[in-house]
Amino acid sequence: MSVRRLAMIAVLVIVVAMIWHWHKADGGAPQHAHAPTAVELTTVRSGAAPVQLSAVGNVVSPHTVNVRTQVSGTLKQTFFTEGDEVAAGAKLFQIDPAPYEATLAQARAQLAVDRASLAAARAQYERMKPLVDKDYVTSQEYDNARATADEGAARLLADRANVQTAEINLGYTLIRAPIAGRTGSIGARTGNLVASSDALPLVVLNEIDTVQIQFAIPQDQLPAVQQALAAGRLPVEVHGDDPQQLLASGHLVFVENAVDTSTGTVTLKAEVDNHEHKLWPGAFVSVSLTLSVQPDALLVPETAVQPGADGQYVFVVGDDHKAQLRTIVVDRQVGADVVVASGLRQGETIIARSPHNLQPGTDVISADAARAQAQERAARP
Q: Which residues does the UniProt record annotate as the domain Multidrug resistance protein MdtA-like barrel-sandwich hybrid (predicted)?
């Protein structure tokens, strides 16, 4: 055997020994060029899914009152602080009542004077009744006495109306809350002269324990709303920037009787409970109007659905643990899930979140199983 052949055999033995050593150091596990890709798996499930219309709406108070004075005068006292909640009938402002008290006293005095004058005129008239038949007084005198009594009665009615008007005006000097609600900015401060003709109200009251959400839907969705309304009350959910955070719930209370020709939309209003005051008049919110509930919808996470050239798709994982692309038809989104109209079956395993550039046919393993294997390898001596 030549020296060159012996050298080649020696090199081959060394290479085999090195491979055996690497194999032994790794616990005898075979080395793969491409390990399975760890992914988050989920199952296509069946469940109840509402059929909803979504829109952006704004919060409005169902009852807003611009509180103004009905009499002129000096603002003497304010009984609340800006932003306070007040009950219906609570005192808000006091206008100086002194001029109106004087006017009432004058009206009552005039009423007393004219009441006395009427009593005298009626007595004179009654005395003349038997005398006119005996020609002790002329017919003219009798007619004058009757006219004086009638005039006194009319003046008394006017005096009573003046007293009533003065009492009403005096009552207007104390301004009370016409509704329960939250106060806004105060339009005039103590010491200012106020009048009913002022441009700004003294304060604006907004009812906020119950509020309305005003929103619009396209006119082609109106028939579905009307059909659903015919079957019963339609629930409404209100969300803020976070679609998972429910701010309030209520029901639809109003559908506008005409389509807005400039936008092709119909205005709707929902009434919701707001005792926790999470909603504020003027705020923009997301509205979900439930028309019906589909009891056996196929649901998958919205994160599992990807856009593709042939439509939306998901990666389905079979018994061979390979990711296969499957084109699906999405009907609608419901919260964090989507309702699948076709392309999937209940119980199939899909990838909930597809890694970037995941290719069909790739071997995959659940993220939980991958972590378990890593912990097992780390525990080996």
A: 64-205
Report d(CA 334, CA 239) in Å as an integer.
13
* Alpha-helical regions (H) of 47-173: 98-133, 139-172
Last residue of a domain, one of 295, 320, 343: 295
Give a yes or no: residue 32 inside a domain.
no
Q: Are residues 322 and 367 in the same domain?
A: yes
3-state secondary structure at position 33: coil
Res 31 pLDDT > 50: no
* Domain span including residue 337: 37-47+296-376
Q: Is 357 left (phi over 0), alpha (psi -120 to 50) or beta?
A: left
Q: How many domains does the chain have?
A: 4
What's at 46, amino acid-wise? S
Whole-prediction pTM: 0.67
Q: How far apart are CA 278 and CA 251, in angstroms?
A: 17
Residue 127 has pLDDT above 90, yes or no: no
List of long-range contacts for 328-331, beta carbons under 8 Å, 24+ apart: 330/305, 331/297
Query: Can you tell me the mean pLDDT for 66-84?
Result: 96
Co-location of 181 and 84 in the same domain: yes
CA 368 to CA 373: how far, in whole Å?
A: 9
